[in-house]
Design a protein that fits this description.
elongated, mainly beta, about 190 residues, four-stranded mixed sheet, single chain, 3 helices
């Protein structure tokens, strides 16, 4: 999903562990910009701005503008990121240029609504197996999430990826028989 957000970036001349540490102490993080016919560029960005994007409703599927100082201004998407396991701070990100006219593959979350009949009255248990499905669509058509109403699900019924309603122009890339959730019987332990 495209947002009207612009993140400022500066070109990095140095690479390695020492310069990356000094960059983080200065309040920036290292990043790499690549893809869509352009050359790879090592840049530095603000971790606060990137964290806002990653923790938004659209998360890593957010398409935003990256304004490189003295250079290009291109729509990009966060492809990969690295967090410090102890401090939970952002350490590094990979950004990919997005061609708004080309279709891309993205994983979109599936939100389940309601309480299943099989859970409510038949004593079953809702088991969520996969929380997202992969689709192919134009960058401007990426949904925030898919919603599926589970209130009519009975015991031993399953929701598969093919049951999720896609918008026109979207192509399901996940296997059609991929289980999103199912209502199962609770077994007693012996």
């Amino acid at each position: 999903m495209r947002k009207d957000i612009t993140v400022a970036a500066t070109v990095r001349d140095t690479r390695g562990k020492g310069p990356a540490r000094r960059l983080r102490v200065a309040g920036q993080i290292p990043a790499v910009l690549y893809g869509s016919g352009g050359s790879d560029i090592a840049v530095a960005v603000s971790p606060k701005e990137v964290n806002k994007i990653l923790h938004s409703n659209t998360g890593h599927n957010t398409i935003f503008n990256l304004a490189v100082a003295g250079g290009e201004n291109a729509p990009v998407m966060v492809i990969d990121w690295l967090h410090d396991p102890i401090k939970d701070t952002l350490l590094h990100i990979d950004l990919k240029r997005i061609d708004l006219a080309k279709r891309l593959k993205v994983k979109v979350p599936v939100h389940l609504e309601g309480e299943a009949y099989g859970v409510k009255t038949e004593g079953g248990l809702m088991d969520v197996v996969n929380r997202e499905i992969e689709v192919e669509c134009l960058p401007d058509d990426i949904p925030e999430h898919f919603t599926y109403d589970v209130t009519s699900m009975r015991l031993n019924q399953t929701v598969r990826a093919s049951d999720i309603a896609l918008k026109e122009g979207m192509l399901l890339l996940s296997p059609e028989d991929l289980v999103v959730c199912h209502v199962t019987v609770i077994r007693e332990s012996v």
